[in-house]
Structures are given as C-alpha cells and as structure tokens.
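Your task:
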Amino acid sequence: MCADSPAASGSDPARDSRREVDWVFRRVSWLVTCDDTMRCIPDGALAVDGGTLAAVGTTEEILQRFRGRRDTDLSGYLVLPGLVNAHVHGAMSCFRGLGDDLPLMQWLTEVIFPAEAAHANPDMVYWGTLLSIVEMLKNGVTTFCDGYFHEEDAARAARDSGIRAVLGQGIVDFPAPGIPDPGRARERAEAFLEAFPAGVPTLRPSLFCHAPYTCSAETMRWVKDLCRERGILFQIHLSETAGEVEELTARHGMSPAFLLDRLGILDPGTLCAHANWLDTSEIALLARRGAGVAHNPESNMKLAAGVAPVPEMLAAGVNVGLGTDGCASNNDLDLFGEMDRAAKLHKAFRRDPVVCPARRVLWMATRGGAKAVGWADGIGSLEAGKKADFAAIDLKQPHLTPLYDPVSHLVYAVKGSDVRHVWIEGRQTVCDGKVQGLEEEAVMKEVRRIAASIRR
C-alpha cells in the first residue's frame, strides 16, 4: 500500500465516461465522515483529486462515477478525517518526563522555565518538534496548533514532514529563548511573520501570548492587533488554575476572561487553551465573542489544574477543540487517548453518563479542532471539496472486535498505535505505521543527544 497502486485495467479509458481522479480508495469497512450528521458509511469509498476530496460515498456510488489513476482497497480498515491537535508545544517532547508530579506553578518556575532558559535553542526546537510530529502522524493527527519559542524552527520541522500546522511564536514579558530582551518582543514577532515560509499551503503562522500572568495588558493588545492586521490566529492560556484566576482577579478587579474582553482580545480569531475555571458569565461571554477553546484533559488531570466546564461550554455554543498540550505535562501526544479521557472525565466529574457523548468528543477532535485553529473550511470532515486529510485504522485487532458502532470504537477503544496509514492533501505520510520521508531513528537519536545535555 506504500507504493502507488495503478488501477486495474478493466475498461477502455476512451469509452469510460467516469471522471478520472488521482486516487480511488474503495471497500473501506467503515468510513466515518464527521460531517453534519456524523455519517458512518459501511463499504465506503473516497475519490481524491489534486489533494482534494472529489467525492465521498459507498464503493458502488464512487465506482459508478470515478475511475482512479491509482486504486487502493481498504477493506478491514476504518477511515476517518485526520485528527486536529488544537494545543501543543511540540519542542517540549525534549522535556518528556522532566519534573513530574508537581503543581503547575512550581513545575513552571522550578523546572520548565529554567530548563528552557538553559536548553531551548533552534536545534532543540527543530528536533523536539520533529519528534512530536512523528508521534502525532503515527497517531493519526494531520494538523496541530503549536506555540513555542524559536518557532521558525518548528515551522521548518513541519515543512520537512509534510504535516499541516498552525505555528505560534511565543511571547512573554521576561527574557525568553530567542528573546533575551522582552522590550524587543514585537520586533521578534514581526521578524518571525516576515520570514514565515511562503507558498506552503499546509502551514500558517500565529502568535502565542503565553498567559495573562506572563504578558501585560499592553503586550496582549499589540499582539492581538498584529494578529488582526495579518489575519492570523491569536493563542493564549486562559484560566488554567484556580490560583491564577484568584491572583489576576485581585490584580485587575475582574476575571481573566473579562480582562481579555476589556482589552478587545476575544473574537473568533482567538484560541484559549485550558479555560478550566470559567463561570457561567464567562462561558456566555466566550460564546458571544466566538472565541474558541482548546480542551486538554490529560494535562489538566496530571497537573491537577482543574476540570474544564466542557459540557456547559458546548451547551452555550462555545466551539471546543481537543489538545494534548506538550509532552512535558501529558506525557504523550495520542489524541485517541485524549478523546477517551475527555469523554470519561466529564461523566465521572458530573456524575452523569450522558455528558460528552462519543459523537461530540470525536467532533471536538476533528471539526471542533479545525474550527478552533481557523481551518474549518478545509479540514475536519470527509466531504467533497475539503482537503484529503485522513487516517486508516486497522480493525483486525482483538480490542476492536466486534464492532457495532464505529464512533464508539474511535473514542473508547481505538489506540493511536492502531493507525496504519495517513494521508495529507492526498499524499501518503504514514504507511504501515512508518512515517514516510523521515528517518524516525535518526530523529530519536538527535533528541537523545539533546536529552543527554539536559540530563547533565
């Protein structure tokens, strides 16, 4: 399946009235579209042309209308849209397992910030991000939204891998990697945007204000103004811990969400990570302004940061995507595991088995994430006209047998390691569990080299 599979000759092309396309993927055991109706098609098929989905339907329907220059049989597989990781710090794979079992602020100030000051450089960001990309691709993630320092090197890693990404240059009000003088942060942000790779349709720039407790009101304003001017996504951590909310409320006389609104930051071009400690008025505010939220259940659980009011946000109409956060606080990038935790965490916390049903959680990991990162028009579902980003899961597994409801399986049973093949814009990026075009062992070797320096 890794090599091109020419279509079997069975008809005269000159007399065949069917539209010719680049690929026909047929005999898919289950095709989960994540469209408006969350349609699940047995014996499904996809027609792909020029990196775009030309049509989605049953094998019979597609073969009546299309003939592929290349043809692939996906019997025994479940195919779904590529997952969208709405919040990650890719380079922090180099800090995986560093400073576990600590409260968030202690973890940041005593472990992460010092480690970043000593070790976060272009070399670390490139290889750490590339390792995260390898892990995400193998787990069916085709798009990720990143925020970190030296982000041009994260963009280089994303470009080299072929993954789709929104890449946010990190900004704080104290000396940081690549920004020793915080007074020159705007100059650094503008340089990042000017140098961003042009003509790469799978990559988009972003700016990432770390949080209201590390960025002043003035900083958040100019960053948001620059994002509006460039038409790019503004990212920020919001209300991650109760202590943070208490401190900021005492300092500003209002909660962090209302502070952002007073500064004119909340709008559909803003993505708020975590949002664990929002009350009903703040949830209504985010819904009115159209700001998105990236929910990170495993990171929140590990750091005991809180349980985000996701059922209430969804009920109010807030768009919620799903993220893993960075490896330093998770410690993996398996979005299937994240879906399972998201569905079960809120059921247990609310003592209600109905909240966060599987269909809604899968929507968060696909269409919700696509909308949150500003790519809803092109990805997140398998529909004609959207990009051909999708993953194939091997159903021939004991833990996936039997199968009654494919959506239930995706949320409660599938593991990232069940992903065997991945395509992005019609190009195969994972085949038989191996990332194409990258030497995985070489990437891991480089990160082990960096880790040895961190260990010393």
